[in-house]
Structures are given as structure tokens and as C-alpha cells.
Amino acid sequence: MKPRNLRQPAATPLPLDRRYDVADVSTVDVAALETIPYEHPGKDVVVNIDTDEFTAVCPWSGLPDFATIRIDYVPRAVLIELRSLKYYLLSYRNVGIYQEHLVNRILDDLVRCARPKWMRVVADYRVRGGIHTVASREHGTSPRPR
Predict the structure, then answer these.
(1) Domain total for the chain?
(2) Cα–Cα nearest to 95, from 27, 47, 44
(3) Which one is catalytic: 24, 44, 58, 72?
């Protein structure tokens, strides 16, 4: 008599095409942005801000995207208050937004808030899936040749 195999067939593995919940772009906290007076109007200074702590999520998969955000601008009458900028950027943490759309949204929000003479926003994303993405957008006329 042949021994019977008492083992159950292996369970079918779950597919890897899961999607995690993401927040809508309407949850971005634009009201967090504040300004302070620029005390030297007429004297152009280029302000450079960067943070490597930015996160948002892919709207398709819900997987996190990590980026360094660089903001360069020439103020007209006000400066962007840095603590408020940190809170604004943090509000993207669970927002589903494509990388190319992010730079447009951030630039539009910051230009509306600070009305700079010139501004550039760069999102330099970490490599994911073997692909490195850098997206950027400018407003106004660059203050110096690149």
C-alpha cells in the first residue's frame, strides 16, 4: 500500500499589486505658510532652502516617495518663515501626488504666499525601481546666469 500524502496543497500567495490608502491633495495645509518682512527691499538676495526629509506617497500604489526639496528665491517684500514651511511640507506626508505635479503645486502655493521676484522649486527623488527622477519649475526671471 502506497503512503498517502497528508499535506495540504500550498496556499496561493497573495498578489503584490496592493494599494494603500492615500490622502487627497486637498489635505495639504497651505494655511500653515507664514511670511516675515524682508528688511532690505531693493537689495536682491538669493535665499536657498533645502530639506532631505520630504515624503509623499505614490497616488497609484500608496508607496512612499522620499525626496530632497530645494527652494531658491529672490524675495520682493517678505521672506517665507521656515518653521511654517516645515509644517507645510510635512502636510504632504500621506498625500498621493505624482512627482511632476508636486513641484507645480509647491511653486504655486509659495508664489501665492510670498510673491517673490523669482523662485525655483526642485524635487530630487530617491531612486525607486532603478529610476532617479528630478522635477523642477521656475517662476519669474532668473537673477543670475546658470
Answers:
(1) 1
(2) 27
(3) 58
Cell digits of residue 108: 504655486
Q: Which three cell numbers stand for residue 33?
A: 505658510
For this structure, is 17 an active site residue?
no
Decide if 12 is inside a domain: no
Burial category of 65 from C-beta neighbours within 10 Å (exposed 0-12, middle 13-18, buried 19 and up): buried
113 carries an active-site annotation: no
CATH number at residue 48: 3.30.1130.10
pLDDT in tens, 54-107: 999 999 888 899 999 999 999 999 999 999 999 999 999 999 999 999 999 999
**Which is the catalytic residue, given 21, 24, 65, 108?**
65
